[in-house]
Amino acid sequence: MKTDQKLKTDVLAELAWEPRIDETQIGVIVENGVVTLTGFVDDFYKKVAAERAVKRVKGVKAMAGDIEVKYGDAFKETDKEVAKAIVRRFAWNTVIPYEKIAITVRDGWVELSGEVEWAYQKDGAKRVVEKMMGVKGVMNNIDIEQKVVPSDIKNRIIEAFHRAADIDAQNIEVDTEGSTVKLSGTVHSIAEKEDAQRAVFRATGVTKIRNELKVAFNS
């Protein structure tokens, strides 16, 4: 089992490996396998990159992202201008059905709502917003349209896990109830837990996931 000190060392090394961020701006606290990030960055996507780096580290049980985003005095765009920029970026993206998504911006915090057909469209909308200047945070409240779930959905999900290089399917249990899928078992990192969830959402008809996977706290 990794000690908190070893886990902190691994987290700091992964942050230093991430080219999009300056690890000297970020503080790392580790307690019982839970990592808390603190500090300030000048771009929301740098915060996202730091959090994703931590999630890749084996043994991290959970993460609290307390990094604050502070844009410099030179940045003058209003919430209205940020919202317009998001609309334009959505319109350029062929994956996102932008006409089905509502955008609200308050003090740099973006709320997405509406209804789309596929989970990858919901996830894609959030990823586009994360990379935009002026954004301090994203609340993704987009719903996914209800679809008929095929009878062999469980087998399709398990097969998808086995195809994925970053998912250890051996330790994951899949249960279905209507359009809801429950995942249980253990994985090696938060990133693997999220990869499994994204794989499930690619299955036709899945509208909700209960992701109860636990991260193994070991070396």
Automatic annotation (TrEMBL):
Species the sequence originates in: Pricia antarctica
Domain of life of the native organism: Bacteria
Annotated PANTHER family: BON DOMAIN-CONTAINING PROTEIN
One Pfam family it belongs to: BON
Domain BON: residue ranges: 3-71, 78-146, 149-217
SMART domains assigned to the protein according to its UniProt record, in alphabetical order: BON
Descriptive protein name: Osmotically-inducible protein OsmY, contains BON domain
PROSITE patterns reported in the protein's UniProt record: BON
